């Protein structure tokens, strides 16, 4: 070690002894910075986990909503088939299970009907595609205006209901055509 290196070493040691509180404060600040960084990281992980849990919960609720809507729809068709030939035209209009999440004829619009069939729980398979084409083909038959009028029989349907049935059929037919050509 040269004289200059030795002198530099002694000066550094003397400075450390006389200014130890500064060194200690730097160490303390560094430790605090590391603790704060760890807390922030833990907070971000917790928030990410919470957001993921909320997202899964929302997805579960959405699936249950569609499942319940489909169960209501299928039960409605069973009741309609059982009640064939009974009641008045006004009553049959109210008993029709419309293919929308709410099941009400007032909500029958293209987007709602498409969403209803695209979210069918029994059509969702491992690849999330299920057999939508086959189901739409059966629904086309079910909603065909002539078939529908035939099912209504002597009960008769008002013009608005017939127009809504026709609109539903056209939406289903277009969806079916799209799935065949996709």
Q: Which whole number gives the mean pLDDT?
A: 85
- Going by helix content, strand content and strand pairing, the class is mainly alpha
Global Rg = 35 Å
Q: Tally of extended strands?
A: 0
Uncertain runs are: 125-129
Helicity range of the residues?
over 70%
Strand content: under 5%
Order of helices and strands: HHHHHHH
Based on CA inertia axes, which overall geometry fits? rod-shaped
Helix segment count?
7
Termini Cα gap:
82 Å
Biggest sheet layout? none
Mind explaining what this structure looks like?
This protein is an all-alpha fold. 76% of the residues lie in helices and 0% in strands. It has seven helices and no strands. α5 packs antiparallel against α7 (159-181).
Task: Produce the secondary structure layout.
Elements: H1 3-18, H2 20-82, H3 89-95, H4 110-118, H5 132-143, H6 145-152, H7 159-181
What's a concise summary of this model?
76% of the residues lie in helices and 0% in strands. It is an all-alpha fold and 182 residues long.
């Amino acid at each position: 070690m040269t004289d200059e290196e030795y002198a530099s070493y002694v000066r550094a040691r003397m400075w450390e002894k006389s200014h130890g509180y500064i060194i200690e404060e730097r160490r303390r600040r560094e430790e605090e910075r590391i603790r704060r960084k760890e807390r922030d990281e833990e907070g971000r992980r917790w928030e990410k986990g919470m957001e993921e849990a909320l997202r899964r919960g929302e997805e579960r609720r959405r699936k249950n909503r569609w499942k319940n809507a489909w169960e209501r729809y299928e039960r409605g068709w069973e009741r309609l088939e059982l009640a064939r030939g009974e009641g008045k035209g006004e009553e049959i209009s109210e008993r029709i299970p419309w293919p929308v999440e709410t099941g009400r004829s007032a909500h029958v619009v293209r987007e709602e009907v498409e969403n209803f069939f695209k979210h069918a729980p029994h059509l969702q398979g491992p690849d999330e595609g299920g057999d939508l084409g086959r189901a739409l083909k059966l629904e086309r038959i079910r909603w065909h205006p002539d078939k529908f009028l035939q099912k209504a029989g002597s009960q008769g349907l008002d013009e608005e209901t017939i127009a809504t049935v026709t609109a539903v059929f056209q939406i289903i037919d277009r969806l079916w055509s799209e799935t065949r050509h996709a």
